[in-house]
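User: Here's a structure from my thesis project, written as C-alpha coordinates. My advisor, Dr. K., wants to see whether a designed sequence matches the one we expressed. Can you design one independently, without my sequence as a hint?
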Protein backbone atom coordinates (compact mmCIF):
# COMPACT_ATOMS: atom_id res chain seq x y z
CA UNK A 1 0.00 0.00 0.00
CA UNK A 2 2.90 2.35 0.71
CA UNK A 3 4.10 1.92 -2.87
CA UNK A 4 0.68 2.84 -4.22
CA UNK A 5 0.56 5.94 -2.02
CA UNK A 6 4.07 6.93 -3.10
CA UNK A 7 3.11 6.53 -6.76
CA UNK A 8 -0.04 8.58 -6.19
CA UNK A 9 2.05 11.39 -4.70
CA UNK A 10 4.48 11.27 -7.64
CA UNK A 11 1.52 11.45 -10.00
CA UNK A 12 0.07 14.38 -8.07
CA UNK A 13 3.42 16.19 -8.41
CA UNK A 14 3.39 15.68 -12.19
CA UNK A 15 -0.21 16.88 -12.44
CA UNK A 16 0.66 19.99 -10.42
CA UNK A 17 3.34 20.77 -13.02
CA UNK A 18 0.68 20.70 -15.74
CA UNK A 19 -1.68 22.93 -13.73
CA UNK A 20 1.06 25.49 -13.07
CA UNK A 21 2.03 25.82 -16.73
CA UNK A 22 1.09 29.11 -18.37
CA UNK A 23 -0.79 28.13 -21.51
CA UNK A 24 -1.81 31.71 -22.31
CA UNK A 25 0.99 32.05 -24.87
CA UNK A 26 -0.91 29.50 -26.99
CA UNK A 27 -3.99 31.71 -27.30
CA UNK A 28 -3.01 35.36 -26.83
CA UNK A 29 -5.60 37.75 -25.44
CA UNK A 30 -8.03 35.14 -24.14
CA UNK A 31 -8.12 32.83 -21.13
CA UNK A 32 -8.05 29.03 -21.34
CA UNK A 33 -11.81 28.62 -20.92
CA UNK A 34 -12.54 31.52 -23.25
CA UNK A 35 -10.43 29.90 -25.94
CA UNK A 36 -12.18 26.57 -25.42
CA UNK A 37 -15.54 28.33 -25.81
CA UNK A 38 -14.38 30.16 -28.96
CA UNK A 39 -13.31 26.81 -30.43
CA UNK A 40 -16.60 25.12 -29.53
CA UNK A 41 -18.75 27.97 -30.88
CA UNK A 42 -16.76 27.80 -34.11
CA UNK A 43 -17.20 24.00 -34.37
CA UNK A 44 -20.90 23.97 -33.49
CA UNK A 45 -21.67 26.84 -35.86
CA UNK A 46 -19.86 25.05 -38.71
CA UNK A 47 -21.49 21.67 -37.96
CA UNK A 48 -25.02 22.99 -38.06
CA UNK A 49 -24.46 25.68 -40.69
CA UNK A 50 -26.29 27.85 -38.19
CA UNK A 51 -27.70 31.23 -39.15
CA UNK A 52 -27.58 32.52 -35.57
CA UNK A 53 -24.42 30.70 -34.49
CA UNK A 54 -24.28 27.91 -31.94
CA UNK A 55 -27.24 27.05 -29.74
CA UNK A 56 -26.28 27.92 -26.16
CA UNK A 57 -27.91 24.70 -24.94
CA UNK A 58 -25.66 22.67 -27.30
CA UNK A 59 -22.63 24.66 -26.20
CA UNK A 60 -23.41 24.00 -22.54
CA UNK A 61 -23.75 20.24 -23.16
CA UNK A 62 -20.53 20.02 -25.16
CA UNK A 63 -18.54 22.10 -22.67
CA UNK A 64 -19.99 20.11 -19.74
CA UNK A 65 -20.26 23.15 -17.49
CA UNK A 66 -23.15 24.53 -15.50
CA UNK A 67 -25.48 26.91 -17.36
CA UNK A 68 -24.74 29.65 -14.82
CA UNK A 69 -20.97 29.26 -15.33
CA UNK A 70 -21.39 29.38 -19.11
CA UNK A 71 -23.59 32.46 -18.82
CA UNK A 72 -20.93 34.27 -16.76
CA UNK A 73 -18.23 33.23 -19.20
CA UNK A 74 -20.24 34.41 -22.21
CA UNK A 75 -21.05 37.71 -20.51
CA UNK A 76 -17.34 38.37 -20.00
CA UNK A 77 -16.58 37.36 -23.57
CA UNK A 78 -19.31 39.69 -24.85
CA UNK A 79 -17.78 42.54 -22.85
CA UNK A 80 -14.44 41.83 -24.57
CA UNK A 81 -16.17 41.85 -27.96
CA UNK A 82 -15.46 38.17 -28.67
CA UNK A 83 -19.03 36.94 -29.12
CA UNK A 84 -22.62 38.08 -29.27
CA UNK A 85 -25.76 36.33 -28.02
CA UNK A 86 -29.05 36.40 -29.87
CA UNK A 87 -32.55 34.96 -29.59
CA UNK A 88 -34.28 33.09 -32.38
CA UNK A 89 -37.14 35.40 -33.47
CA UNK A 90 -39.23 32.34 -34.43
CA UNK A 91 -38.72 30.63 -31.07
CA UNK A 92 -37.81 33.05 -28.30
CA UNK A 93 -36.89 30.14 -26.02
CA UNK A 94 -33.85 29.39 -28.20
CA UNK A 95 -30.69 31.39 -27.51
CA UNK A 96 -27.63 31.42 -29.72
CA UNK A 97 -24.09 32.72 -29.57
CA UNK A 98 -21.86 33.63 -32.48
CA UNK A 99 -18.30 34.85 -32.78
CA UNK A 100 -17.66 38.47 -33.60
CA UNK A 101 -14.94 39.36 -36.07
CA UNK A 102 -12.57 39.85 -33.12
CA UNK A 103 -13.63 36.53 -31.61
CA UNK A 104 -13.05 34.73 -34.91
CA UNK A 105 -9.63 36.38 -35.27
CA UNK A 106 -8.60 35.32 -31.75
CA UNK A 107 -9.88 31.80 -32.36
CA UNK A 108 -8.04 31.53 -35.69
CA UNK A 109 -4.83 32.92 -34.22
CA UNK A 110 -4.95 30.56 -31.25
CA UNK A 111 -5.91 27.61 -33.44
CA UNK A 112 -2.91 28.22 -35.69
CA UNK A 113 -0.56 28.47 -32.71
CA UNK A 114 -2.05 25.28 -31.22
CA UNK A 115 -1.44 23.39 -34.48
CA UNK A 116 2.24 24.38 -34.48
CA UNK A 117 2.55 23.64 -30.75
CA UNK A 118 0.95 20.19 -31.10
CA UNK A 119 3.16 19.32 -34.05
CA UNK A 120 6.30 20.33 -32.13
CA UNK A 121 5.29 18.35 -29.04
CA UNK A 122 4.54 15.21 -31.09
CA UNK A 123 7.82 15.56 -32.98
CA UNK A 124 9.82 15.89 -29.75
CA UNK A 125 8.10 12.96 -28.06
CA UNK A 126 7.86 10.81 -31.16
CA UNK A 127 4.55 9.85 -32.72
CA UNK A 128 4.66 6.28 -31.38
CA UNK A 129 5.29 7.40 -27.81
CA UNK A 130 2.62 10.06 -28.09
CA UNK A 131 0.05 7.52 -29.33
CA UNK A 132 1.03 5.19 -26.47
CA UNK A 133 0.63 8.07 -23.99
CA UNK A 134 -2.89 8.72 -25.29
CA UNK A 135 -3.71 5.01 -25.07
CA UNK A 136 -2.46 4.87 -21.47
CA UNK A 137 -4.40 8.03 -20.50
CA UNK A 138 -7.57 6.45 -21.93
CA UNK A 139 -6.93 3.30 -19.91
CA UNK A 140 -6.21 5.42 -16.81
CA UNK A 141 -9.50 7.28 -17.32
CA UNK A 142 -11.37 3.98 -17.60
CA UNK A 143 -9.79 2.68 -14.38
CA UNK A 144 -10.58 5.90 -12.52
CA UNK A 145 -14.22 5.86 -13.67
CA UNK A 146 -14.60 2.23 -12.58
CA UNK A 147 -13.00 2.82 -9.18
CA UNK A 148 -14.99 5.99 -8.52
CA UNK A 149 -18.19 4.12 -9.36
CA UNK A 150 -17.17 1.32 -6.99
CA UNK A 151 -16.61 3.80 -4.15
CA UNK A 152 -20.01 5.33 -4.79
CA UNK A 153 -21.60 1.92 -4.29
CA UNK A 154 -19.87 1.28 -0.95
CA UNK A 155 -22.26 1.55 2.01
CA UNK A 156 -22.32 5.04 3.42
CA UNK A 157 -20.69 6.61 0.35
CA UNK A 158 -23.73 6.77 -1.87
CA UNK A 159 -24.83 10.20 -3.05
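Assistant: Designed independently from the structure alone:
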Amino acid sequence: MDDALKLAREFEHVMCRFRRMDYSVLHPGVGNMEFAVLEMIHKLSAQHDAIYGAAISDLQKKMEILPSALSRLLRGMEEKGLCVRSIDPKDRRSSYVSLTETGQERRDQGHGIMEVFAQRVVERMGEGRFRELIKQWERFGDVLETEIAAFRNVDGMEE
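When you compare it with your expressed construct, this may help: The domain at 2-125 is CATH 1.10.10.10 (Arc Repressor Mutant, subunit A).
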